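[Meeting: bench + compute handoff]

Bench side (C.D.) handed over the final construct sequence. Compute side (W.E.) agreed to return the predicted structure before the next meeting so the bench team could plan truncations. Sequence as handed over:
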Amino acid sequence: MTIKIRRLGGDDASVFVEHRELLDDPHAILLVAVDDEEEVGFVLAYDLPRRHGNLRQLFVYEVDVLASHRRRGIGRLLLEQLAELGIREAFVLTEPDNEAANRLYERVGGTRSDVAMWDFEFGEERKS
């Protein structure tokens, strides 16, 4: 297995991209893992500008690898490639019981923290 990681942009086609506007967003980073010309995994992250501290922070929004290619280090490769972008600080959110995701984030050197997350709904469908 020879995995290559490439960044998608512009007019790239991908089985992982349902919304083309992701490829046009300058803050969206979409990397795909390719095994013999088949896309087998991806990571979607956002480069977030900040006012304080490091001027940029990376928000890892989603990581996924096809079931047929899991537990081969592809998720780790994708996250390590994000580190090559030169952004010094990153974070990701996941459920406490998502064992696979928590194992992955620990393996790439993440530090688990306990934070409160708040959800908001805006607009007419907003709950009271």
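W.E. noted at the follow-up: The chain has three helices and five strands. C.D. will use this when planning the next construct.
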